[in-house]
Amino acid sequence: MLIEVDPKTYSEFFRVDPHPFISEKFIELNRKKTEKIVRLIEKNAYKPAIGFTTGIKNTLLQSPFSAPFGGFHFRNQNIYISEIDSFINSLKEYITSQENFGIELTLPPDIYHPNFNAKTINSLMRNGFTPNIPDITNWVDLREFKGRFNRKNSREYYSQAVRNGLHFDLASDEREEKDVYELICNNRAKFGRPIYMTFNDVKDIDNLWPVDFFKVNTEDGVLAASAIFYRSHPETGFAVFWGDSDEGRPLRAMDFLVFNLWSYYKKLGFKYLDMGISTESGLPNEGLLRFKEAHDTVSSLRYKFTWKA
Question: What pLDDT score was predicted for residue 44?
Answer without folding.
Answer: 81
